[in-house]
Design goal:
single chain, DZANK-type domain-containing protein, elongated, about 35% helix, two-stranded antiparallel ribbon, DZR, mainly alpha
């Protein structure tokens, strides 16, 4: 019985201090913003990539708020973002 308890405690300690800590770091790596053009790490408030000058943000033509270049609608005023395709 004591051996079983020691084994369970060893697994619990392993999970809490080693396994869980390593997997949290892996999840944080996925949250890093990257430039869609060159893959360079960029801050979420950057307007352009400092390496390749790819446009990351633009201003909504209706309300003037900064929005992501790939969004179809402004999350602030709900206006459709015309990407100018075919112009």
């Amino acid at each position: 019985m004591t051996l079983l308890l020691l084994i369970l405690m060893a697994f619990l300690i392993y999970y809490l201090f080693i396994y869980k800590a390593n997997h949290v770091d892996l999840l944080e790596v996925n949250k890093i913003n990257k430039c869609p053009s060159c893959g360079n790490r960029v801050e979420k408030n950057f307007n352009v990539c400092p390496i390749c000058k790819e446009t990351l943000k633009k201003f909504c033509t209706n309300c003037g708020e900064k929005i992501d270049i790939h969004w179809n609608y402004c999350p602030y005023c709900e206006k459709y973002i015309d990407k100018g395709v075919g112009k």
